[in-house]
From TrEMBL:
It holds the Pfam family HD_5. Keywords: Coiled coil, Phosphoprotein. The keyword Coiled coil applies. Residues 11-125 form the Response regulatory domain. The modification 4-aspartylphosphate is found at residue 60. Residues 127-154 form a coiled coil. This is Response regulator. It comes from the Bacteria. InterPro entries: CheY-like_superfamily, Cyclic_di-GMP/3'3'-cGAMP_PDE, HD/PDEase_dom, HD_GYP_dom, Sig_transdc_resp-reg_receiver.
Length: 360
């Protein structure tokens, strides 16, 4: 691409003016650039349709058929981002202000001065060139961020799958466990996002992290002895205490060192919070911290409902599975004590969708 003095690129400039002498003068002054001409606003719009790559517009305000103000109104409908310099007479101060209010970036008074016109145009072209470089740089950064985000998501998925496989190897969960919990968490979160109860707001990023981390809620069970974990009968008090240690073991499994609050990893923090609180009961009778009500993190209140439903509708070493209707009946019996009422109501609304998705 050809450049002129100072590294400025040769520009395509649209001059719109009904005065032939002014158009001829503009062409003469701007010999370093490519200039296309229009005698009124209507012709100017036609030129823009043919040349959307135009870099700058010089616009007279007094023209037949379509004046400069009407042109500017119509121009904005085209969603183009081309700087406009208006051409005015010395006494037209009010019109200059009106033109600037409509989006013009500058004005030049007639009769046209060679040096003033050249300098004003150079300033606007340099600004446009710099803006385009910044936009291109930002697009490149956005592409890098998007690529890095995809890599992080993929790394997270691999990490989760590896950890969940540990549960499968121990015969604690089936390979479908991760899929079930993800489906339920997705539908439950989106239902809350839809009805928007105060205090239950979830961003798209938070929902995605909840979906991704839901399968990790019982990862601490890999540290529980087989004699307790796989016992087919009822656990005694000592065994219950051992089993409950899976919560702390799960949190510890995801422990990592941080230098400051800024270095916390959002994804891991969500998983740790979910693991730590998903066995808390709404009435404060849960474990390990006996948290009550809204003191329980929302991630834990969400996972509590999902975990119970999944446990009731899945076969375990110590029990057979229940059908969905019976499972909901059992959950309703203890809902007042166990579950956040807002979360439980949202869950009941999506049970039909859950059942449909499970059959896919």
């Amino acid at each position: 691409m050809r450049h002129i003095q100072g590294g400025l690129k040769v520009a395509l400039i649209l001059a719109i003016d009904d005065a032939a002498t002014d158009l001829a003068l503009i062409q003469y002054i701007l010999t370093n650039h490519e200039v296309i001409l229009a005698r009124n606003g209507e012709q100017g719009l036609q030129q823009l349709e043919e040349h959307p790559q135009t870099d700058l517009i010089l616009l007279d305000l007094h023209m037949p058929i379509m004046d400069g103000f009407t042109f500017m109104d119509r121009y904005h409908e085209l969603n183009l981002d081309i700087p406009i310099i208006i051409l005015t007479n010395t006494e037209e101060v009010a019109m200059e202000i009106q033109g600037l209010e409509k989006g013009a970036v500058d004005f030049i008074r007639k009769p046209l001065n060679f040096k003033a016109l050249q300098m004003r145009i150079d300033v606007q072209l340099r600004l446009k060139q710099s803006t385009e470089l910044i936009k291109e740089h930002n697009r490149h950064l956005e592409e890098l961020v998007e690529k890095r985000t995809r890599e992080i998501r993929r790394t997270n998925e691999i990490t989760i799958n590896a950890l969940v496989r540990l549960l499968e190897v121990r015969n604690i969960e089936t390979s479908d466990h991760a899929r079930r919990t993800k489906i339920m968490m997705e539908l439950l979160c989106k239902q809350l996002q839809k009805v928007k109860p105060i205090g239950y707001e979830l961003s798209d990023k938070e929902i995605q992290e909840l979906i991704d981390t839901a399968p990790l809620h019982d990862i601490g069970k890999v540290g529980i002895p087989d004699r307790v974990l796989l016992k087919p009968g009822k656990l005694d008090p000592d065994e219950i205490a051992i089993m409950r240690e899976h919560v702390n073991k799960g949190v510890e499994a995801l422990d990592y060192s941080i230098e400051s609050e800024d270095s916390k990893i959002s994804f891991i923090e969500m998983a740790r919070t979910l693991i730590a609180s998903h066995h808390e009961w709404y009435d404060g009778s849960g474990y390990p911290e006996q948290l009550r009500g809204l003191a329980i993190p929302l991630s834990g209140r969400l996972m509590a409902v999902i975990d119970v439903y999944d446990a009731l509708t899945s076969k375990r070493v110590y029990k057979e599975k229940l059908d969905q209707a019976k499972a909901i009946e059992v959950m309703k019996m203890e809902a007042d004590r166990h579950f956040d009422p807002v979360v439980f109501e949202a869950f009941l609304q999506v049970v039909p969708q859950i059942n449909m998705r499970m059959q896919e």
